[in-house]
Design goal:
Elements lengths: L2 H16 L1 H8 L3 H9 L9 H11 L25 H14 L3 H12 L10 H35 L7
């Protein structure tokens, strides 16, 4: 790096660190996460000149920020079209309500989306299909259970000699 480039780099870093948007992100304690998400670096000192320029453009509203979804608690980053944390939770909750094993769920996912994928590898659209299918399956099983309970109660009443009207 030449002297001019080094000087320009320091100017960019200074502009970034005094920018109100940086101050806002830093105050929220999210600056490291912001950098890791976009550039896989913990500090802006490790960024290239073009990346520093990009940050300034984003802060000044001259360039759109990359579309990223919110982090999940496991600190894994997902693109916007990937399954959301809420969708993942809903699938797991429905799996528990149905009493299915992981193998049962993977077979169901394969039938729904016509390919073999793990939950975390699903797109948002595929996850919606799986959730809809699981929800309908659960409703069907609940309906069957209710009808069998009604039938058994009616059968007991009819065949009970002690039953009085």
């Amino acid at each position: 790096m030449t002297k001019k480039q080094g000087f320009y780099r320091k100017q960019l870093l200074t502009k970034i660190h005094i920018h109100p948007r940086y101050q806002e992100i830093k105050a929220a304690g999210a600056w490291e996460d912001w950098l890791i998400l976009r550039y896989s670096e913990k500090t802006s000192a490790n960024l290239s000149l073009s990346e520093l320029q990009e940050i300034l453009l984003i802060f000044n509203g001259k360039k759109r920020d990359r579309d990223f979804a919110v982090l999940d608690p496991n600190r894994k980053f997902f693109l916007k079209d990937a399954i959301s944390f809420a969708q993942k939770q809903k699938i797991q909750r429905l799996q528990e309500e149905l009493g299915w094993s992981d193998e049962d769920l993977s077979r169901f996912i394969q039938k729904q989306i016509k390919s073999i994928k793990k939950i975390l590898d699903l797109s948002s659209k595929e996850a919606s299909k799986v959730i809809t299918g699981l929800d309908r399956t659960l409703n069907y099983k609940l309906k069957q259970l209710k009808s069998s309970e009604l039938y058994s109660r009616a059968f007991k009443a009819v065949n009970n000699p002690n039953y009085k009207r």
